Amino acid sequence: MKRALLLLLIGWMTAVLMLTSLAVAPAAVLATASGPALSRQVLDIKKLPADLALASSADEKIKPLKKPAPQPPPDAANKWAVVIGIADYSGRDSDLWHPDEDASEMASYLVNRGFASERIKVLLNRKATAAAIQSAIEWLKTNENSQSTVVFFYSGHGFRVEDADGWDADAEADGFDEGIVSYDLYGLPDGWLRQALAGLEAQKVALLFGSCHSGGLFDDNDDLQANGRIIASACKADQYGWDYLTLGNTLWARYFVDLGLLNGQADSIEAAHAFAYPLVVAQQPDSQPQLSDGYAGDFIP
User: Fold this and answer.
1) DSSP one-letter code for 34
2) Rounded to an integer, what distance in angstroms lies between the CA atom of residue 144 and that of residue 138?
């Protein structure tokens, strides 16, 4: 009870509920005051500064001329990943419990699948600034090619704002932009992510998002979807993801990553989604994982 009162007072999410005998709270929150009728903290996220804004010209698909990262042995698989998990955010009012565990377990799974550790860029907590996330994506584009397997994983806060607020240049059919939140509380909207990932040549790409409103990252036809890409999210565009205090993971990642992929209940991204969906919805009916599958066949990293 003292722990619950303390969390309520410091306002992590300003919501600590008792559900199925577990203390729970939303894994990320709206950036506006609208949304489901529950008590929550409103994140004070910021728009990206000019030096992190991306070009909108045809040149955006040109690969950056940067020195590649140190290479693994020649026999290492052509597999590359960026894995991000943020539980400890800047300041004291925005922290979560388990997204960093989600990311660590995802990285372990990828190593088990033959990803060389040198080819997995892991950004946890304070290392996952907006600049570091952008740099990691550029590192990814520098090193991958058309024959690569690429995975981008994020667990942490998400946000949803009105399209008219000008967070990016694209027009959303539902009138809202959704995005992810860096450690330093910059909002990275779907339009920014689309441009940042546009230069990927790989024809086998998985984009995995464990955050609130993450289904909104691919709810329009011109969002993150592309041939050869599979995209999974913790929930729909207008829904929350959840972080359970005693579960050891966020709710979605507990079943998708931990039990599904890492512990062998699923042998592909599609199977992990099918395994996780009913288990997540059974505990949070208004948190429905989503999948967009543009990859032919089962996606096995």
Assistant:
1) -
2) 10
Fold for 2-50+76-293, please state it.
Rossmann fold (3.40.50)
Residues 6+ apart with CB under 8 A from 123: 82, 83, 84, 85, 103, 132, 133, 136
Q: How far is residue 190's CA from residue 154's CA, in Å, rounded to a whole number?
A: 13
Q: pTM, whole model, 2 decimals?
A: 0.81
CA distance 9 to 12: 8
Spatial CB neighbours of 142, under 8 Å, sequence gap ≥ 6: 63, 64, 66, 68
Q: Where are the alpha helices (DSSP H) in 27-163?
A: 99-112, 130-143
Other CB atoms within a 10 A radius of the CB of residue 54 amount to 18
For the chain, the domains span: 2-50+76-293
For 111: left if phi > 0, alpha if psi spans -120 to 50, otherwise beta; the answer is alpha
pLDDT band with cut points at 50, 70 and 90 for residue 167: low
Residue 114 corresponds to which tokens in the numbers above? 């033959």
pLDDT tens digits along 260-300: 999 999 999 999 999 999 999 999 999 999 999 999 999 99
